[in-house]
Structure formats: C-alpha cells, structure tokens
Design a protein that fits this description.
23 strands, single chain, seven-stranded mixed sheet
C-alpha cells in the first residue's frame, strides 16, 4: 500500500545517509528521517513522497538506538549547523567511516580497505572561525545568531557549542555596542541597513582574535569608539576589519577589506607553518584537527630531498610548506590571489627558498606545467567540495607522478575522482578518514595512490643467469585472476601484504607502501588464500 502524506508509520532505522538522515524501510520503500540514530524504533510522520523514497520527521522515539544520547544544545534541530548532537561521538565516527567506505564502493567502484577514522582532538568549541548573521530583536536591540535550517529565518544563539566561549562573548559585546551607537542592521529583502554579519577568527596558538564586521557600505559610524570599547572589554582582540559587501547576495563577504584597528591580520601556526590570516584567507576551521589531517598527508606523501612536490589547490600553502623541509622543490598553485600572496609570505617567514607559488586555476596551471615538462614525483590534490575537474586530472596523469595524495572534504566527489585515476594507471594504496567537523555530517579523507608500472600488461624481465624471459605479473593481472576464479575483488594493499607474508622481495610489488603509518585491517583469510593461489599460478611461489 503506497505511503500517504501526513501518514504516521512505525520505522526502524537501519543506517545513516551521507547527508546525516536516518534511513529505514516501510513496505519496501526507503524513508529518510533527520535526527535519527541507527537502531531507533520511531513513530514517523511522512512529510514528502517521491517516486521511490519518502521523507519523514520524528513524532516520537519508541525505542532508542544504542548510539542515541540527549542533545546538549537548546536550538539543536532548528539551527542549520549540527546534525549529530543526538548521537554519541562513537556512533558519529562509525557513521562517518561508513560514509567514506560507501562512497568509494558505490560511486568509485573501489573495493579498498578503509582505515579506522581518526577522531578530532576536540568535539566541542573546536572552530577557529565563526560567522553570525545580524538581526533586530523585538526590543530593537542588535542580536547575533544563525539561520534556521534550509531558510534565512534568523535564530538567536548566545552560546554555540562549536565556537570557543571567547568568540561568543565578543559577538555579544559587539552587538551591545552596535545597539548603543544605533548602527542599522541590514535587511536582505529591502537591501537597506549597514551591519550584515559579525565574522570572527581565533588563533589557537596565541589566543588572539580578528574581528570583522561585514557591512553594506565602506564606513562605520563611531568606528573608533566601537573599536576602543571592544578592545577594552576583550584585550585578545588584535585587529578589527570592515569588510565591504554592498551586493544583493547571500554570499557573506565582499572582496574589499578596510582595517579599522590593528594590523588587519591574525597570526597563527599550523603544523610548523606560520600563517597570517585576513578575513578572506582560507584556513581549516579545526586547527588541532588540521594538524592531524596534514600529518597523515605528509606520511602518505613521504617526500625525499630529491623529490619535486606539486601542491594543487594549495590555499595559503600550508600543506606543501609543512613538507618543505623534506622535499627538494615545492610548487603551489591556487586561484585566489590573496591566498597566493599569503603562501609567499609564509614561505619567506619560514626561510623556504625552494618554493614557488602561482596564481591560476588548478586545471589550467596543471596543463601548462605538464606541457612545460614538469615531472613532479608527488602531487597533492586538496580540491573544494566539487572535487577535481577532468582537465586537472588529465594534466596530473600526463606528469605521471609516483604518488598522488588526495585530501578531500567530500567522499562522493573523491570517489568519482579516484575512480578516474584508478582507471588510468593508479592504484589506491591507503584511505584514511579524519573527523574535522564533530557533530556535523562532514568528514575529511586522505587517500594515497601510486602509479602502476603498466596496469594493462605484464612486466617482462630478462633473467641474467639463464637468459630466460619470465613474466612478472602486475597487480592488475593478479586482481583479474582472482576476480575471474573466485568472484571477488582484492585490493593492491592486500596483494602487497600477502607478498610480504610469503617472503617475496618488494621489487616484485612496485605498488606497495613499504611501511604503514597507521593501524589498518589485515587481509581476510579467504583473500589471502586466493592471492597465494594467484602467486602460485604466475610462478612467483612454489606449488
């Protein structure tokens, strides 16, 4: 019997989707429910019906799942920020690991082991950046908050648990000062009013704060008095900047910044790289989590003194510069001019003289560098959520680096791009999810790929002593043999593991990672036996 809108149904939640919704089935139809937990038995109201699935909302929790906990935020479920405050952190991590594995399998067609997700060092108040929309309360005072989910309806929030307490208090003080000096608040419908957003950045290493007020104009009345009062109340405020955004848009910041107090930038350190941050600079919002993320990227890249490292989508150069002391040459590419200038300043501050940074689209720059004959040993890809475009991937393939390290904030586009690379001569060697955004649906993933010697043929070697020509199969040939005989896929990392297990020299495993830096799931016994059979078939081990 088909579902009907507003129907109340019982539903057991079997999984979480990558957008954070619970997923259950009612009469063979998938039903997606926000703020659900795996194992929940719910009473659900159907609110939208599509051809093959439906959406519902929780009417009541009949039996809570094992991972469900009481939410600790008074506006959880109404704010458009967190989606997992009703889950234990362990349940959240398990869900995010599942998001990565599912995307690789379903979108990428990749049967690869996924390492246990690395948790964030902090799950509360970890963000070093916050942007509050401003609005008028009923009494005419200026208030800061967030937008309700899927809307531009303002929602007051005095103490967001993702933001450090000092940032919430600075925002409250600034709202009081804007009210005191009668600063008008922007009305997005009428496109009138001055103050649009409060935008704060926090340096974890020294505690200093940059305050940016986004305005529908180039000046702020009583700016000196407001700055003086704000700094007196909060001495950690190092700079106050006015960002000009006079466009009728929901984009928060404009392109012009005017310094009202201090140097106009914030100084911080990320994995040994000194950074100077303005309002428009890209910077990972979880500083301690980013240190962990970039550490994984460095372990995977494993640069040596003779290596050339190409860092595409480099931002302010943090990833590449964190590896600069270990590589012979560093080239960074970024499309945002301010970020490129920051990268150059950061390199100069570190005394790094073998780094170059170019302002260009990643795809265009990669094509030009490939045409110029650049042959980097290592390419780092850290694209935006939309992933890499095909020209960028083709240019990377033309350079034929030994290793590619991808840092992705979107498992779906990462899986798509990894599929393309794996179809063109590269093998996924390691996948490491990293939680950078606790209590939200987002997850970062670091992936190591290595170049196959020739994925479609076999490697032929001349045995010096006998003059006999012998075939040494590539990983591709071993995978094809196992797939054809046993009906399942085996990952190249599993093949390398079994080769080590039987004592084969690693020159016969050109795609293997010599040392694993993190714990990883061992090859299942049935796949061990299948791979051993393939090695016997190709004459690499005795019958």
């Amino acid at each position: 019997m088909p579902l009907v809108k507003n129907q109340i149904i019982p539903l057991t939640i079997d999984a979480l989707s990558s957008d954070g919704n619970g997923v259950g089935r009612f009469e063979d139809q998938a039903v997606f429910v926000p703020f659900a937990a795996v194992g929940d038995v719910l009473s659900v109201k159907v609110v939208k019906i599509c051809k093959s699935y439906a959406f519902g909302i929780v009417e009541s929790v009949l039996t809570p799942g094992a991972g469900r906990i009481p939410a600790d935020c008074p506006i959880f479920g109404r704010c458009g920020g967190c989606c997992f405050r009703h889950l234990s952190y362990e349940a959240e991590l398990a869900a995010k690991q599942g998001f990565v594995a599912d995307a690789l399998r379903r979108i990428g067609g990749l049967d690869v082991p996924v390492r246990d997700i690395l948790p964030s060092p902090q799950t509360q108040r970890y963000r070093n950046k916050v942007q509050y929309p401003l609005f008028l309360a009923g009494d005419g005072s200026v208030q800061a908050g967030f937008y309700a989910s899927r809307s531009h309806r303002p929602l007051p929030c005095g103490d967001c648990l993702l933001q450090p307490g000092p940032l919430n208090r600075i925002a409250a003080t600034l709202c009081t000062l804007l009210t005191q000096y009668h600063i008008s608040v922007y009305d997005e419908q009428a496109h009138r009013g001055l103050a649009r957003h409060i935008y704060l950045r926090h340096a974890v290493t020294n505690g200093s704060v940059l305050v940016c007020l986004v305005c529908n104009g180039r000046s702020l009345p009583h700016a000196q008095d407001i700055c003086a009062a704000l700094v007196k109340a909060h001495p950690e405020v190092e700079s106050v900047v006015l960002n000009v955004n006079t466009h009728k848009t929901n984009v928060i910041t404009g392109k012009e910044c005017i310094t009202l107090y201090g140097p106009g930038v914030l100084h911080d350190t990320m994995r040994g790289v000194p950074v100077a941050l303005g309002p428009l600079s890209f910077y990972q919002v979880n500083t301690e989590g980013a240190n962990r993320l970039y550490g994984v990227a460095a372990d995977f890249a494993a640069p040596g003194p003779k290596d050339t490292l190409l860092d595409l989508y480099c931002g302010a150069g943090t990833i590449g510069l964190s590896m600069a002391e270990h590589c012979g040459r560093l080239i960074g590419v970024e499309i945002v001019p301010e970020a490129v200038e920051s990268a150059r300043r950061n390199a100069a501050a570190m005394g790094v003289e073998h780094a170059e940074f170019f302002c260009a689209d990643a795809g265009t720059a990669a094509q030009k560098l490939a045409a110029d004959g650049l042959l980097p040993n290592i390419v780092v890809l850290d694209p935006p959520r939309k992933g890499c475009d095909e020209p960028t991937l083709k240019a990377v393939l033309a350079m034929a680096p030994q290793r590619i390290v991808m840092v992705s904030c979107n498992p779906a586009t990462a899986a798509r791009d990894l599929k393309y690379l794996s179809q063109h001569g590269y093998a996924v060697q390691a996948v490491q999810p990293v939680d950078m955004f606790p209590r939200t649906k987002h997850v970062e993933t670091v992936v190591l790929l290595s170049r196959e010697t020739n994925p479609l043929t076999v490697e032929v070697r001349m045995e010096v002593e006998t003059g006999e020509v012998k075939e040494h199969p590539t990983y591709k040939r071993i995978q094809e043999y196992v797939q054809e005989k046993y009906g399942f896929k085996v990952h190249t990392a599993y093949i390398a593991e079994v080769k080590r297990m039987v004592g084969l020299d690693m020159h016969k495993a050109p795609n293997a990672v010599e040392q694993r830096k993190h714990e990883y799931h061992p090859c299942p016994p049935e796949k061990v036996e299948a791979i051993k059979d393939a090695l016997r078939h190709f004459g690499l081990i005795a019958e």
